[in-house]
Write a structure and sequence with these properties.
mainly alpha, about 75% helix, globular
Length: about 170
């Protein structure tokens, strides 16, 4: 059982705020016709894979709430999506033993982006606005299913893997 610590809580809050701040700064670069980057989702996946505990669930929920507050969406929609994704990251990393197999990692990342997008999109547009505007088959959503996993691999997965390799050394 993992104990609660101020360091991990501070790290989680800082990562949630930093990801949402970066998302807010860069969001004018893409609108409905451009690819959508979801930095809070990528940070949630990274934190949940780094610290697989209930703290990761809280971090996912907090990141989603910050995203809802900063973007003006309905409060709780992104929070629910990030919570579900954090739970899936923890659960699937625990169950799958081929975590370093790159095709499996890419498939899981696409799954996480799809689940987050479906919950967020369906929650906001279908139930609150009662419109469908292209739905989950829009080119923007489909391209985000490609660009977010690739960004995650470049920003988080490969550097963490390299650091792990340097820490472990080459062996004997």
């Amino acid at each position: 059982m993992m104990r609660w610590s101020w360091r991990q809580t501070t790290l989680a809050l800082f990562m949630a705020l930093a990801a949402n701040g970066l998302q807010s700064l860069l969001s004018p670069m893409w609108h409905y016709s451009r690819p959508f980057m979801d930095f809070p989702l990528l940070v949630t996946i990274f934190y949940a894979s780094l610290y697989p505990s209930t703290g990761a669930l809280l971090m996912g929920w907090t990141t989603g709430l910050f995203q809802d507050l900063f973007s003006g969406n309905a409060l709780g929609v992104n929070a629910l999506a990030k919570l579900v994704v954090a739970y899936l990251v923890i659960y699937l990393n625990e169950k799958l033993e081929v975590q370093d197999f790159l095709p499996v990692q890419i498939a899981l990342l696409v799954l996480y982006v799809a689940i987050d997008g479906c919950i967020g999109y369906l929650g906001v547009t279908q139930f609150l606005q009662k419109t469908w505007q292209g739905g989950i088959f829009s080119p923007n959503f489909l391209f985000s299913m490609l660009i977010n996993p690739l960004t995650y691999l470049v920003l988080f997965h490969f550097p963490a893997r390299r650091m792990r390799r340097k820490t472990l050394g080459t062996g004997g």
